[in-house]
């Protein structure tokens, strides 16, 4: 079952969000993240929350998956909130004071903002990876980076590397499992002992894995050459990314959100 | 003069082994021809040079001396490399280490994409080739979930999609279980008989050579036997000498003959054996 | 030392949508000194079964008793099992990792906590058993060797733990005919000369016919046939039903009998076929 979990937990579906062009989704996600930091009023965040919740509903992804993405960063959010709370200075008299710990009203607000920003950062990127398959993401990134080839960014090579990595991750996990079992059958123990001992015990797994990976890479390169691969020049793609009305609607909504956020920054602060 | 599919003239190949200075010839003066539409099997042990000569046929390796021509194109001329690799496709031994994409149909598209084929045409080729190898239903599957035999069939589709004139199978069944091997062999025979594709099968399993048009046997870098399956199979002693396996039936005929029974030694199948024995009674 | 497998069931990912019964109520006993072949298709459960016998997997229900000790109990010391049951996986040469052959083979004995002297003795013995000369090979890098030789080093690595039972999962996979014969010869001698109980997982009916005293056939997690080669290969219909074949000569004999020729059914190797046919031909 581990084999079936892809990076970022893609959940197939055919919602409006799923069908958006990956380039558009990636750009919207980036703009969204920047927008999170543009907004600096609670009124502004209402719009962000509304935009996000509507997006999640439209994508038909269950909230439980979003929640799972948040669980790992709970501690981080807590620490950030606490740090901001105590570290932010203020003009008015402090709300709370005990020995050297001082909390100003501005501190509480900052903590709240940073908490919101972190949480929605994760929610936004989760939604991206939940609704976009790794292949689509790779294609999207490649197409977005293409114009940068002129300044030396190896867009095609990066995309090829990502695709091959994604392709081989389940295979390598299988192989690691096999190697572990084989070494365990010879009495290897990966679980007991000090940290140093446990690190050393990984050598019988890592060495064979590395060697096999080099061999794999070699054979794969030969197979690719046999199929006339010679880099990105002159290559066509079977899957073409085409922008549709959906993409324009989504972009327009995002533009409206940014507009409101910028205005909000000027008016509501 | 009609061009041969592949022509090897006095090919010698030596691996560069800088430590030792006197490395052996992996291919020692090999000359052979492959006709268009032929089903040729090259048999030999590990180390006999069979894989090495195969890699000369699609310009993955270049001869130390001698020449290799693929449909008249000289493999040592760099300008020809990509045309040659388009004409002579290759399916390798390890099913995993030739699949590049995360889903089946994208991997089959890899070859045509490299050739710059227009997208709609690629789509047509991918569908057609997957159907030819009976893997169309798996087109959206992830490769790591397929069996060995299925992976190899995907690899074959990927080569077919490039519209080669000939396909070389470099020990493509060696890592498969018996059912996988059967699947792949049937696919290979089908593309030869049904679609007229020239097929060169490199293997060390004699049973795979039963239906070949011609067999070439290699040992220590040289060709030591060449002929029809019947011809080759009957030379049981020689085959065993060089460490190759003979099907039980053929070995039995040989053993019986050695014990004085007047029986043919070029028996290939169970049915042939049964009728031979019945005639003797 | 016997291995008793009682009502062994193993279900992968119980309770999830991917739930799969890999082993279904397996009940077998393997006696000391037997040479057992385990045949079945990919997915029949043979890999799962052998991983239970050496403790890598724990059953969902059922017991495995090795040498009187129930290894399925929670507090079992894994070293106890590893000392008694050795497992060689498919393509074992992919586990080699040490700088020298001696060090790699010593890995197992070291994990058992033996003294350095004992370890060296074991390495020497193990290399002997697989036909690798100690002085010549001990300091070489395992990666310098050919595929077949690497495999022997890997097998030596398990044999050095001096298990009473040796399980080998498709030891001839990917080898050419001579390589196959060599490895099978070594396995045969491990059984004959060193008295190891052997469990051989294989696809090749011809190999199994030549070597095994007993054949267990698995399909879909169940054990469907269990007996001598003669007994198992006679059930051609059952074997074909689950997609397995019998040796070529056995098919030949079946067809001869269908034509009314009175030849013994128990033929699965070329030698046996030759003997039987000569008998009949000389009579006429």
TrEMBL record, chain A:
The chain crosses the membrane at residues 46-67, 73-96, 108-131, 151-169, 248-268. The keyword Nucleotide-binding does not apply. Keywords: Cell membrane, Membrane, Transmembrane, Transmembrane helix, Transport. The keyword Endoplasmic reticulum does not apply. Its main location: membrane. It comes from the Bacteria. Pfam families: CbiQ. It is a multi-pass membrane protein. It is found in: Cell membrane. PANTHER family: SLL0384 PROTEIN. Belongs to the energy-coupling factor EcfT family. Forms a stable energy-coupling factor (ECF) transporter complex composed of 2 membrane-embedded substrate-binding proteins (S component), 2 ATP-binding proteins (A component) and 2 transmembrane proteins (T component). Transmembrane (T) component of an energy-coupling factor (ECF) ABC-transporter complex. Unlike classic ABC transporters this ECF transporter provides the energy necessary to transport a number of different substrates. HAMAP family: EcfT. This is Energy-coupling factor transporter transmembrane protein EcfT.
Automatic annotation (TrEMBL), chain B:
It is an enzyme of class 3 (hydrolase). Keywords: ATP-binding, Cell membrane, Hydrolase, Membrane, Nucleotide-binding, Translocase, Transport. Its main location: membrane. It comes from the Bacteria. Residues 6-245 form the ABC transporter domain. It is a peripheral membrane protein. GO terms for molecular function: hydrolase activity. It is found in: Cell membrane. Belongs to the ABC transporter superfamily. This is Energy-coupling factor transporter ATPase. It comes from Clostridium aromativorans. The lineage of its organism: Bacteria, Bacillati, Bacillota, Clostridia, Eubacteriales.
TrEMBL record, chain C:
It is found in: Cell membrane. CDD domains: ABC_cobalt_CbiO_domain1. ATP-binding (A) component of a common energy-coupling factor (ECF) ABC-transporter complex. Coiled coil: none annotated. The keyword Magnesium does not apply. This is Energy-coupling factor transporter ATP-binding protein EcfA2. Keywords: ATP-binding, Cell membrane, Hydrolase, Membrane, Nucleotide-binding, Translocase, Transport. The keyword Membrane applies. It is a peripheral membrane protein. GO terms for molecular function: hydrolase activity. Belongs to the ABC transporter superfamily. Energy-coupling factor EcfA family. Forms a stable energy-coupling factor (ECF) transporter complex composed of 2 membrane-embedded substrate-binding proteins (S component), 2 ATP-binding proteins (A component) and 2 transmembrane proteins (T component). Residues 3-245 form the ABC transporter domain. Its EC number is 7.-.-.-. It comes from the Bacteria. InterPro entries: AAA+_ATPase, ABC_transporter-like_ATP-bd, ABC_transporter-like_CS, ABC_transpr_CbiO/EcfA_su, ECF_ABC_transporter_ATP-bd, EcfA2, EcfA_1, P-loop_NTPase. Pfam families: ABC_tran. PANTHER family: ENERGY-COUPLING FACTOR TRANSPORTER ATP-BINDING PROTEIN ECFA2, HEAVY METAL TRANSPORTER.
